[in-house]
Design brief:
alpha/beta; 2 domains; 7-stranded mixed β-sheet; Methionyl-tRNA Fmet Formyltransferase, Chain A, domain 2; single chain; Rossmann fold
Length: 297
């Protein structure tokens, strides 16, 4: 199966690492996100003499001409950020597929893992689907559910999802190569589904008026090396890295956001909309910048 691959970051790196060892997949070219540092991927594939591209506008006539020369069977996308036009989708001999970290037709769109954690989902969905000219609406080829602990943080969940995405994509390619796959229209699962929008900087701010459960989910959904939930204390931005939901905490009316108890280990309790939550690990933005600067310097 000759494929053209489109991707970015750890998602692409994991898939390529697996695919290069399989005899039923021949990667003819790789298209990386435009303007993004994907040097690790380049280092891997340069030894394999695979052509690598970055296109600012994937749907230009020039790009269509370049990709058409490869005569591939399948386009495969994982974490690629441009929508394909019909002219691009017509290039592969068979179909184009995308792997999305959401249980389509639910969690279409951006940042689906973060949104799933925020929504207290017990499972994260992974879907391989055909690409059409809309966003995450194509017919489904394969789906898998990943069980999520109610205390797991985003970075932990992400590692599992990245590996599952690669494995499920490879399984889908295998089925397509054997012509042993069947398609499910998303409307057969739910007539509407729903979309998630991209999360921005302002979404990092904790709303202490929410329930303790919602505050805890917000914190664990934003736990990554360069992204954390934030709050303010005496005009300083504070990064909240780890917290603990206290299920036995009493519900009472108070002032959300108030620090109500400081522990000997310097963790502290904050009043929420219903009860309280323990903030276990935190750092001021100033301290964070100094520390990261020391590491990078």
């Amino acid at each position: 199966m000759n494929i053209g691959f489109f991707g970015d970051g750890e998602w692409a790196k994991k898939f390529i690492g697996y695919a290069l060892d399989l005899d039923y997949i021949n990667i003819k070219f790789i298209v990386l996100r435009y303007g993004v540092d994907n040097s690790e991927i380049r280092d891997i594939v340069i030894k394999k003499s695979i052509d690598i591209y970055e296109f600012e506008k994937i749907n230009s006539n020039e790009v269509s001409e370049v990709l058409s020369k490869y005569s591939v069977d399948l386009f495969v996308s994982i974490s690629y950020n441009q929508i394909f036009s019909r002219s691009i989708l017509n290039i592969p001999k068979l179909i184009s597929i995308n792997t999305h970290a959401g249980m389509l037709p639910f969690y279409r769109g951006r940042n689906p893992i973060n949104w799933a954690i925020i929504n207290n989902e017990k499972f994260i969905g992974m879907t391989v689907h055909c690409i059409d000219e809309n966003i995450d609406t194509g017919d489904i080829i394969l789906q898998e559910l990943i069980e999520v602990s109610e205390t797991a943080y985003y970075d932990e969940i992400l590692k599992v999802c990245v590996d599952m995405a690669a494995q499920l994509t490879l399984e889908a390619i295998k089925k397509i190569s054997e012509n042993s796959y069947c398609l499910t229209k998303q409307v057969e699962i739910h007539p509407y589904g729903f979309y998630c929008i991209r999360r921005g900087v302002k979404d990092q701010i904790i709303n202490w008026s929410n329930s303790s459960k919602n505050v805890f989910n917000h914190i664990r959904a934003l736990h990554a090396p360069n992204l954390y939930a934030i709050t303010y204390y005496k005009g300083e931005i504070i990064l909240i890295k780890k917290a603990k939901e206290i299920k036995e905490a009493s519900n009472y009316i108070g002032v959300p956001g108030s620090i109500i108890h400081i522990c000997p280990d310097k963790s502290f309790f904050v009043k929420t909309g219903d009860s309280s939550i323990q903030v276990c690990t935190y750092e001021s933005l100033t301290e964070f910048k100094i520390r990261v600067g020391e590491i990078l310097g």
